[in-house]
Known about the structure:
Blueprint: H1 2-22, H2 26-39, H3 44-56, H4 60-73, H5 78-90, H6 94-107, H7 112-124, H8 128-139, H9 146-159, H10 162-175, H11 181-188, H12 197-205, H13 212-228, H14 232-250, H15 255-269, E1 282-288, H16 294-301, E2 307-309, H17 315-323, H18 333-337, H19 341-354, E3 361-364, H20 373-379, E4 384-389, H21 392-400, H22 415-436, E5 440-444, H23 445-450, H24 452-462, H25 509-514
Helix pairs in contact: 1-2, 1-3, 2-3, 3-4, 3-5, 4-5, 5-6, 5-7, 6-7, 7-8, 7-9, 8-9, 9-10, 10-11, 11-13, 13-14, 15-22, 17-19, 21-22
Amino acid sequence: MGLLSTEEELKQKIQSIVNFFNSSRYEEVIKKTIPLIKKFPQIYILNNLLALAYNGLGKYEGAIQTLNKAIKLHPNNIFILNNLGLIHGNLDNNDIAEEYLKKALTIKPYFLEASITLADLKSKMNKNDEEIIILEKAKEVYKKSYALNFALGNAYQKKGAFNKSLNCFRACLEINPMNTAADKAISLITKYDKENIHLEEMKNKLTDVNNDENKMWLSFALGKALEDTGDYADSFKHLSIANEIRNKKINYSTDEDEKLFNNIKKLFDSKNLPKIKPSNKKIIFIVGMPRSGTTLIEQIISSHKLVYGAGELNHAHNFIENNFLENGFIFSKKVINEFEEKEFVNFQEYFLKKINSDKDIIIDKAPLNFKWIGFLLIAFPNCKIIHSIRNPMDICWSMYKNFFPSKRLNFSYNLNDLGNYYLLYKNMMSFWNSMFKDRIYNIEYENLIKNNEKEIKNLINYCNLAWDENCMTFYKNKKSVYTASLAQVRSPIYKSSIEKWKNYSGDLKELSGLLGL
């Protein structure tokens, strides 16, 4: 009886930890799994839960250490192999990640979780076609899997194959109509009118949604659909509900971002900047606030035959965070005391090693790289910095009505946080512009929309590229698009996105006041 009691008690403890994990209470997961792992090292699910909790907190090295210990005990455990692939992918260790995932799929060829993780890795590597092949193969076995259809829908969406994408998302809703992530995905590529069937379906099931996450997805989707139909009051109501749910879960504060920005300015105010040899490849960094037009600019320039658009890369952020910062906003004493040339050579080598293209001109359009402009100009003396500027109200409103998977955009779900972050960004860019002057090309989104031929030619000229007519027909670019602009950049330039926030001006008075407008 004693053994049975112990086994039953252990099962209950594991279920309790799983519940904490499903509620994103990662600190609780860590606190409760570590002592249990010491007592029961052979139970692999505990190691997986601990590793995934570390992963949820962005503590990837802790996750890897946990799984490395577990894989020694269970060398062919497909779940540990999958999680090693997942977390090495988060660290941009793509080759290592792929090796673990392929091993898992060798052991179990149609292992669904590993198929989806490998497909996601291919997506991060800008190999959208390979992503689709992996998922289509898995679909031979898992036609009724919500997760697989959703992943495949996203893959086709990035490629611009919107009809195939819609079919996948509709299949999701047939499998589980109350999992409303598919409704949100459909809304992103649908232009609604008042008679739209999907709009009516979403309204009808609003009262039946049974958890906060699904309520959030459905509210984001309804907010977008009702904006399309001109029902702005109801649109704002639903978007407010969605953002409130998300903001409550993440509990964001601008304090750490403010400290980081101040520390960056102090650092560059007091340092003689090292000079290193330019790289063979030229990097074009497109920066600014998210939703400021960075995807459009990348789509235009990457239409040039000599240019590879790599999308939003994590490489700069990962290197700086892991090598220069101690806890997210404090620079290490070594960095404060001396800017060593070799550190920036390492930065350059690390970044270029991660690039997956034979072309010599590469675009990185991670908008929040605006924080690191000084570091980028040191590590890549021959780089180009393009800063996309847009009406702050349009930026903040466009961010508020969208969902972003990146934790770095957690300031997006509260209008006050959005306004304060925008002011931090504006101050940071004033600092860089005063320090580097001619090294930064500032382009206004509104000018690009109104005078597109002139502004596009100026952009291409700034990049020291010969003119290529393909840049004017950027919407024909077959490059996969991974941002919330994936539908817009498949169309010629249009002006309807300018001052769209004014439809909600009554609800945005406080934000407007905060921004001094």
